[in-house]
Amino acid sequence: MTDARETAIQEPSAPVPLLDPREGIPPVTASPEALAEVVAAFAAGSGPVAIDAERASGYRYGQRAYLVQLRRAGAGTALIDPVGCPDLSSLGEVLSDTEWVLHAATQDLPCLYELGMRPTSLFDTELAGRLAGFARVGLGAMVENVLGFTLEKGHSAVDWSTRPLPEPWLRYAALDVELLVDLRDALEEELSGQGKLDWALQEFAAIAAAPPPTPRVDPWRRTSGMHKVRRRRQIGIVRELWQARDRTARERDVSPGRVLTDAAIVAAALEVPPNVHALAALPGFGHRMGRRQLDQWQAAIDRARALPERELPQPAAAYTGPPPPRAWADKDPEAAARLSAARAAVSALAEELNLPQENLITPDTVRRVCWTPPSEVTPENVGAALTALGARPWQVDLNTPLLAKALATRPPAAPATPPSTPPTTE
After folding, report:
1. Alpha carbon distance 165, 159 (integer Å)
2. Running DSSP on this structure, what letter comes out for residue 324?
3. Which GO terms describe its biological process (predicted)?
4. Nearby residues of 351 by Cβ (< 8 Å), 6 or more positions away
5. 123: phi then psi, degrees, rounded to nearest 5
6. CB of 139 within 8 A of CB of 127?
7. 165: DSSP letter
8. Could you tell me where the DSSP H helices lie in 195-332?
């Protein structure tokens, strides 16, 4: 007799709510002794391991993990508390030769790196869904469309730093890895049937081999609403307020947005308040903010106001790539023509292959090769340029012919002006 899971996988047209993990909710692993037992169990397991991590984005500073979920055949499901077990390198070691199955791997890998866990091979079910042409690639949508189950997603944005974690949250977390390997197997079969499996494997290998992300240069430039701030002195105020907020958020271990909103930073930069009283009248600095906090923000503003001109930030961050495409027609009409032809060709091929354009080839790669094409446009040189820009072999094979043709495009010649006819006299 088959259970409901097997039936639903065979009949995906009738979604079945997935309410409880097969073996129930496992206890939370929060001590070195309990972690050693998990390590032993997963070392003895077989097949791929499903892995997920829960962060406290919007509540805590940074992107550290506050719960790590794993599931593997023969080992069952484990829920690990990184607060009690901040070093998971022993678990990472026993799983080093195992394929990791993650959904949206690039979101979870950085916080797993911090815990000492790094895969040598992986399968990303979200990316697999994109390459397979699914319109909705969230975990819940994929599980429902591919396997015929519905997952309850009501706890995705809760504060996972809460201790103890409520039972409904733990159930939700365990269910996130319950069918991840099943989803992986179904997507592998789908990709194989579409002739795209090798593409996916190349993408997965690139993610696994990528180095950990490095800190952004001038992260304050990503302040929401920054585009409204034009003058260098005002931009300096954004920088000083952002940095002051970041220090406070780090010290208090809270999300920076809970210390001071981006909207408040931009409002202060645009108004340049001369004193605390003027600052308190701005949105985001109202009556709920204490005098000490207001003094802190006003001090940051005053520092920016006192900076000599040479120390003020430039309006735009240094950028080594091509200019914004909207400026190409004026700066280099031939490059603009190449880009237009390349975009049209990539769009048509992506539609034909039923996958997103950005997965077929990144827009930045297209812009760079169109702005600075090889001195001699041949398929070999175009392919080498794409490879140097980070394109995978499958992307190089598919895009080289169409981009080589696009790079030979020239802007249409301006219509000739007919010679003026001198007036006739009668």
Report:
1. 9
2. P
3. nucleobase-containing compound metabolic process
4. none
5. -135, 120
6. no
7. P
8. 197-209, 232-252, 256-259, 262-271, 276-280, 291-306, 328-331
Q: Class of 325-407 per CATH?
A: mainly alpha
pLDDT in the model for residue 198: 98
Whole-number percent of the chain with pLDDT over 70? 93
What is d(CA 200, CA 175) in angstroms, rounded to the nearest whole number? 25
Judge if 4-209 and 219-311 fold alike in CATH terms.
no
pLDDT at 99: 98
Report the sign of the C-alpha dihedral through residues 342, 344, 345, 351, in that order: positive
The CATH architecture that domain 4-209 belongs to is: 2-Layer Sandwich (3.30)
The CATH number corresponding to 219-311 among 3.20.20.370, 3.30.70.640, 3.90.480.10, 1.10.150.80 equals: 1.10.150.80
| Long-range residue pairs from 295-299, CB within 8 A, at least 24 positions apart, any chain | 296/244, 296/248, 297/241, 297/244, 297/260, 297/268, 298/273, 299/244
pLDDT at res. 9 = 41
Which pLDDT does position 316 carry in this prediction?
A: 81
* Contact criterion met (CB below 8 Å) for 386 and 373: no
Answer whether 126's CB lies under 8 Å from 139's CB: yes
Question: pTM higher than 0.85 for the full model?
Answer: yes
Q: Is the bond leading into 422 cis (omega within 30 degrees of zero)?
A: no
Give the residue from 354, 360, 324 showing the smallest Cα distance to 342.
Answer: 360
